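Fold sample X.
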Amino acid sequence: MIRLPTTFLFQGIISMEKIFTFQKGRLEPVETEIVSEFPLKLIVNDREIATLIASPHDLRFLVAGFLRLQGFVDTVSDFHMLSVCADFGIANVRIKGELPDQLRPVLTSGCGTGVTFTLETPAPNPEDQGGTRIFRPDAVFRLMEGVARKAEGYKNHGGMHSAAVGNAEGDLLLFAEDLGRHNTLDRIAGEALLGSVDLAGTLLVTSGRVSTEMAAKAVRLGVSLIASRTSPTDMAVKICQEAGIVLIGYARGGKFTVYNGAERIDLTADEKKIKGVSGVILAGGKSSRMGSNKALLPYKGGRFIEAIHRQLSEIFEEVLLVTNNPEQYEFLPCRKVADLFPGAGALAGIHAGLYHSANPAIFAVACDMPYLNNELVRHLAGRADADCVLIPEGPAGLEPLHAVYGKGCLAAIEETLTLGEKRILSFFDRVNIIKINTEQIAGFDPSFASFSNINTPEEYFRLRGSERENGASDGTFEEALAGNRND
């Protein structure tokens, strides 16, 4: 048997001297890191019952959760001993009671092949799973985004699955990462058991397929909703139907598919959307300082522009994307419109948004602003006037790429563009302007981070670095973005 050096065991990766990538007809040498695969022999009451193939971190959570979800233990007091020796790859456990005389291992569809036992499990009771509980789409997406922010194994190396449980508001409670998707749920179950965290009624999100063993484990934990970035199996759907678990697949890009429990998805939030104003995303910049299209950079488990679109979709009934390259944004579920004055910059984008809007006013925002404040946007849009511009002031002055424009301004904008003027402020002397001063803005956003944007690779990586270090819930980007104000 090959023993891995213990210095690598808890890093979750093994450094490679060299690998090769094939591109453009050539093999190019590169240095990289790959995910560790660690076999852990599980001995319970002096019986070797399984070898768990897993990532080599937090193994006690994995062992405790595996035993819990197999029905061997229910509480911490069921353990007499739980010892994990990473040097030799052995977990030695002693529990109350005896194991069944015959255990029939079943190889599951989990990555690396998981194992479970055909033990009798409690009949699912929909009431135990919160069978009447209602869930909001934004809570699902918020939890998915939380997982994406924490899933460093996959971001850095690939080949890793992640899962998390959260509450009905989308707050992340527990997170786990492993090369096996089934292991991630075992780890969560173990950490919850050892930490006395009640998982009844929680939301479970996972990066992997929801198959039979994943659904069955969720039943044991009392989970009320399962959401995945991919699809479930037919047997998993059946288990969720019997247990009263809401089952969601393909949760990404502001969309998802409901396989069970559609009647428990709360869509009343749409009634709170602002009437008479369209959200407009301006994606016409050249991104010359970034060196690539910044709207398409990875961010919050998707692309930069997806996060902004999702946020505006929660506020406005109509969201438009102004772009002269609509084919690049086919993944966004909104109407794409082009400039009527091509090459005239952001002012032409505002004009196009106003011209094509189904409403008498628009809230216009640049596609590279990662820290929009919903309450501030609602405050501005709630004061929209079809005959004027409503514009906030920040420390650097007026913020025209975070402002409300009425259709009554169209003629003045067209006249300005016809004269060859491209600066947004150049038509302001022809229309009514309402300025929202810094004191009012500070009441919603004291750091004025709403007006921050990302222009260079350094700013982008600083943002991502801050996101990783802080766990990056909304509202933690101020330091990373300080000084990156709109041009």
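Fold sample Y, listed below.
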Amino acid sequence: MLDVRNFRGADYDTDHYLVVAKVRERLAVSKQGAQKYDGERFNLRKSIERKVRKQYQIEVTNRFAALENLIDDEDINGAWEKIKENLNTSAKESLGLHELKQQEPWFDVECLGSLDQMKQVKMQWIRDPRQSSIDNLNNVRREASRHFKNKKKEYLRAKIEELETNSKIKNISDLYWGISDFKKGYQPRTNIVSDDKGSWVADSHIGLARWRNHFSQLLNVRGVSDVRQTEIHAAEPLVPEPGAFEVELAIKKLKSHKSSGID
């Protein structure tokens, strides 16, 4: 909700007032409806370590040594598939895959136990809706909420201390990674694209096909040789450079016999 105001002067023959609001809507695909991404994400943070980076360079060099004898007239798509396969295999063996976070990092076994206890007390209240059950449920809820808040505070305090340590020892890479995680916050994933008819499409495979078709039409341009060089029209007419006599004559016309600026 960006802005809300009422128009008291608008007459609609009613005792209500007209209210106008400006609303900004963000379209996001829910995790249940969106299909899972089939690709693999590599753990790029491990590339900061010198040993891992050296291992990746060695593996890439060894795998690309087999591609030096490629035939020049080989299909470019086949060559690209070999190059991509070598890069992906080297990255998977040296860097490893990035594991997506399924839950908050501060949510540990103790938090899970508090959550299970709250569920059990709630089921007991549903089976026996007495005042004592309600009071017990409220007490367990407050205790679980307090436990979650304390866990989150401890986690944030530990992360801040880690950032301070990285700043003191000049570990700039880990410092920027940590700050980026704090500032990024919640980022909804949007897989929505528009098709040829202008309708919204949320399917990931259809979206990839749509982007592939778009760039194919944009980049695969035929008839480049027919393009003629267009005439360049300048803002001012092209004039020859002034000669020495013209410069001398212009200086004599000045009152102080010198130019007043860069001209």
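Sample Y note: The longest strand covers residues 3-7.
Also: The radius of gyration is 34 Å.
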